[in-house]
Amino acid sequence: MKIHHLTAAEALESLGSSLNGLDDAVIEGRLREFGFNRLEETRKTSALLLFAREFLHFFALILWLAAGLAFFAEAQQPGEGMQTLGYAILGVIAINGCFSFWQRHQAEQAIAALQKLLPHQVKVIRDGELSLVYADELAPGDLLVLQEGDNVPADCRLVEALALRVNNATITGESLPKGRDAQPSDAEDIGQSRNILLAGTSVVAGEGKAVVFATGMHTEFGKIANTLKTTVKAQSPLQKQIARLSHFVALLALALGVAFFFIGQAIGLTFWENFIFAIGLIVANVPEGLLPTVTLSLAMATQRMAKRNALIRNLPSVETLGSTTVICTDKTGTLTENRMAVKQLFLDGHYCNPDQLGRHSLQQHAAFLGCAALCHNLKRIEGNAPLGDPMEIALADMAHARGMRIDYPKIGEVPFDTDRKRMSTLHDTPAGTMLFCKGALEMVLPLCRQIAAGNRIETLDDGHRQQLAKALQTMADQGLRVLALAYRPLPEEIPDNPEQSLILAGLVGLEDPPRPEVAAAIGQCHRAGIKVIMVTGDHPHTAVAIARQIGLVRSEHPKVIVGDKLKKLTPSQLQVALDADEIVFARVGADQKMQIVEALQRKQHIVAVTGDGVNDAPALKKADIGIAMGKAGTDVAKEAADMILLDDNFASIVAAIEEGRAVFDNIRKFLTYILTSNIPEVVPYLAFVLFKIPLPLTIIQILAVDLGTDMLPALGLGAEKPDAAVMEQMPRSQKETLIDWRLLARAYGFLGLLEAVAAMAAFFFVLDRGGWEYGQILHGRQPLYLQATTACLSAIIMMQIANVFICKQRQRGLLGTALLDNKLILSGILLEIALILAIVYTPWGNALFGAAPIGGEVWLFTLPFVAGMLALEELRKWLVRRFKLFPLRAEPARLRKSGRTRTGR
Ligand code: ATP
Questions:
Q1: Which atom of ligand 1 is nearest to the CA of 392?
Q2: Distance (Å, rounded) from C-alpha 294 to C-alpha 103?
Q3: Residue whose CA is at the smallest distance from ligand 1 atom 6
Q4: Exposure pattern of 303-338 as b/e (b: 16+ CB <10 Å)?
Q5: Which among 19, 71, 530, 753 could disulfide-bond with 525, CB atoms 3.0 to 4.6 Å apart, if both were Cys?
Q6: In what helix (H) or strand (E) does residue 161 lie, and over which residues does it extend?
Q7: How many beta carbons lie within 10 A of that of residue 248, not counting itself?
Q8: Going by CA atoms, what residue is nearest to atom 5 of ligand 1?
Q9: Residue nearest (by alpha carbon) to ligand 1 atom 19
């Protein structure tokens, strides 16, 4: 007989388990025998293959071709320097391949490290006690405790179930939840059996206990995973943009190479000179390293985000975060601390605080306190604080503190959901079966017929109702979360709908203070042009009071839309309503969150939305950025989310947005940096062609810059920390491309030209001192020529060192910039200096790069050019700031005044 055919007791016994779970002593042996509960990656691409790939992609092939041509040319026409070029290109391929491999490896490591930050824990009963263990330490025979929102971590057989429903979509594809119970089944197929829960599925309602019978690769999911190919990782839009750009630039380089070849031919240069130059130009400009650098800077951003408690689940989200225009946030736990304490009670028509509820009045308020003590879903783990909703903990604590220490067994439950906004539990008590109900007053009151008044029970009348409504408002206006508690003794024959004819026991006002960091984070959002909308299930008055405390609402009359009203709004009415500056949605259900997200998206907003429950999953998926709570969130919500907040804190969302914005800026910084040096590389050749001077910069020297000295500082720019100014601008439109005319004008038309002037000046400075006269032909190996090209190269590198600092900021001056805060940049510069010194002053450097030692006067000669570039760039930045020239993004305030919304999704 298969396990689903057995009774619950037989199933437990067959696995050597019981309702007390496994003994701790057994676990180790079982794990040794059955292995850890993990899916092994079956077809991991070997590191060797990945390494080999770095040498065989599109750009590498162009380089191989170029190297082949160089060696071929050497064979045809020995002594023209082709061989050196061939070797140089091979060197380029090797350096590039290794660097890209290292970058990819770093990026993968960074992403893999993130996974470990949020280990999956599950509740099990072991040795008769409830405990939390890592999901991969589960063994067959373990007794799992599952509840709404939990992912099922292994294949298991239910032994107890209360209104349990599962979503099997991951296994069977059917997305409608299915009811499950603990009865033996006569189904043939284990997957069809009502008492089986499969790993990878999730519990969407109810609760239960189940005994594990298969783990890891032995589960049904493991068997499917076994046949699956390794998943193809999608590229982010930014990566795609870079890939497209790289291909375009590579083609451009090819075209330039060919064009220069023919220009050379036309003006009578030798075939081989032209040939070398064409190949060199192509090699120098093929942007093979760009994509890995972008990937690495995205990955490094995810690490910085993780340090700030935001865990990114997929790379594209990093960019989307940067263009977020609206955050729809829950209140409880995200804006507030979710540290609940009972502050005020409303009993018998009077306010009191819980301390005033003396032990002498215990009898009088027994039902009220009994409801607080019993109506919950808390799990008690020996020696630890109870596990569950902090509000329920606060209520149970209050009852305990007043001496109400009862633990009557729960025999049934009408579960909480955000639409019903109440829950009820049924208990066997010495006085018979009792129902305890708690929830929002407007959801509980209609079920009540009577009200407790001291020792008496009165019929509920309009006077009571008005009194209760007023009390609710008074407490909510102080920011308290108000719950109504009610109860009812049940007849022996429990009715189908037991939630009726209740007796209202009283109201509880719970305090949940705002998180201290939140007010500042909201302020930051305002300055950054990000709208923050509170979407809460709580009462509108509580919501507005809290919103006011954190600065989310500042006006006298913010727009407050409650769930009932939201239901009646047409899509266009909702869209219009969303134009209000300050909006709070209160008493909304999870499905309504979706409605709000969709309306915002129709308004071209990029929407981030938070959520924690099972019902939030669709909205989390629909949003541009779904954000789940790491602590209070269910597994289902986490799975649907793009980002997980490790500390559940709103301020961490804002920190992540800041990092997301910085990534884009950083990529621009390093693009500006590497594009700049193209001009001083091309201008010498143009001068050589147009003015018939000796060639100021050889191909090998160009390669030394592009693939040697420029690399690490560029990577450093990609890892810059976010600048304070990134949160002072409007969000970036998703249409905004990485490279635009501003960037090109600055890199090519300004910085590049200045570098070219310095490089040419250094070249002529050496020639002039060596007595060269215009028209005189210099041989390629003549010391004067070698020194002159070395001066040209050195000048470019000196200018590029200054340029790193320039590229750190687009608008702010050097004085306001932290220049030494980025270790990667500093080590990049040190390497740059070491490389140029090695090229200039070592015999092998000279031999390899066609260089010769230059005197100190050449360096001194270049210094004013460096200073000049720094000064002119300062002037440019000052002019841009002073006259607000070509603003990249509008300032938030201006944009809001003109009433424009974002476009460009
Ligand atoms: P937020 O949506 O900001 O997290 P919330 O926690 O108040 O706020 P919901 O969880 O949707 O939102 O709860 C809605 C209402 O349902 C609460 O204001 C409360 O009145 C009631 N409620 C919440 N949790 C429970 C519970 N465990 N038992 C009974 N009623 C509850």
A1: 27
A2: 10
A3: 332
A4: bbbbebbbbbbebbbbbbbbbbbbbbbbbbbbbbbb
A5: 530
A6: strand 155-167
A7: 12
A8: 537
A9: 440
User: Is residue 766 a contact partner of residue 784, using CB atoms and an 8 Å limit?
Assistant: yes
Would you name the residues annotated as active-site residues? 330
Name the architecture of domain 287-306+658-882: Up-down Bundle (1.20)
Residue pair 698/817 in contact by the 8 Å Cβ criterion: no
Note the pLDDT tens digit of each residue in 827-851.
999 999 999 999 999 999 998 888 9
Q: 3-41+112-230: which CATH architecture?
A: Distorted Sandwich (2.70)
Q: How much is the pTM?
A: 0.81
- Is 3.40.1110.10 the CATH classification of the domain at 350-508? yes
**Residue nearest to ligand 1 atom 12, measured at CA:** 537
Domain with CATH 3.40.50.1000 in the chain: 312-337+515-648
> For residue 422, how far is its CA from the centre of ligand 1 (angstroms)?
8
Give ligand 1 pocket residues (Cβ under 6 A). Answer: 330-332, 389, 391-392, 416, 418, 421-423, 438-440, 481, 483, 536-538
Pinpoint the residues of the chain covered by CATH 3.40.1110.10: 350-508
Residues of the chain with CATH 2.70.150.10: 3-41+112-230
Note the residue count of the chain.
Answer: 905
CB 715 within 8 A of CB 293: yes
Q: What is the pLDDT of residues 526-571, one digit of tens each?
A: 999 999 999 999 999 999 999 999 999 999 889 999 999 999 999 9
Q: Please list the residue range(s) of the chain that carry CATH number 1.20.1110.10.
A: 287-306+658-882
Residue pointed to by tokens 């490896």 = 105
The CATH code belonging to domain 312-337+515-648 is 3.40.50.1000
Q: For residue 442, report the distance from its CA to the centre of ligand 1, in Å.
A: 13
Segment 868-875 mean pLDDT: 94
